[in-house]
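Please produce the structure of this protein holding guanosine-5'-triphosphate.
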Amino acid sequence: MFHLAKGLYTNWNRKEQYSILILGLDNAGKTTFLETLKKEFTNASKPLEKITPTVGQNVATIPVENCNLKLWDVGGQEALRSLWAEYYLQAHGIVFVIDSSDRSRLDECCNALQNVVMDDDVEGIPVLMLANKQDREDRMEVQDIKEVFNKIAEHLGARDSRVLPISALNGQGVREAAEWLIVRLKRNKDNKPPQYK
Ligand SMILES: Nc1nc2c(ncn2[C@@H]2O[C@H](COP(=O)(O)OP(=O)(O)OP(=O)(O)O)[C@@H](O)[C@H]2O)c(=O)[nH]1
Ligand SMILES: [Mg+2]
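Below is the modeled complex.
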């Protein structure tokens, strides 16, 4: 009884922490999204013009509402994609970033997402697809992107998924993306419990 009460007290005093894996092709804007999210919720972030292609990983823990999101941003270059699977089991949610201006790599992008969502290790966790670079004039229409990516999402079965338009560069839609995630992570809490930190 004492241990139960102590456990409840300890958890009550700690914040729920969810791990989020940020995936997508190289140049999609994953690291820019991470830095903009940091700026939105903590005011501490790296200047966006200093971001270079990610070879290892970037990790940040950000307070959002009454939780912490621990975000893992990994490199999207083809040679690095085989490393993504090593993060799947610990992830409570996936953010998949799409470059809305890159028509020539749309198929490659779909294949990469398909490989992720078909993996048993990510079964049941929410997937948020971000149609990034909405500030660019040469962007594809959000509706067209939704049609393509929702087709893949149809295979996700009972899990939550959504395509949201954002600009990681100017911050448009970034807060809404984090808020969408928090709701779904909490909804999936029984299936994938958070850590308490
Ligand atoms: N116009 C515009 N450019 C963006 C946006 N987001 C990212 N970029 C640019 O896209 C390029 C790649 O951004 P990164 O954040 O490094 O992309 P990444 O997905 O982390 O790439 P890897 O680390 O190689 O996997 C940079 O020149 C960014 O400034 C956006 O919303 N709008
Ligand atoms: Mg990067």
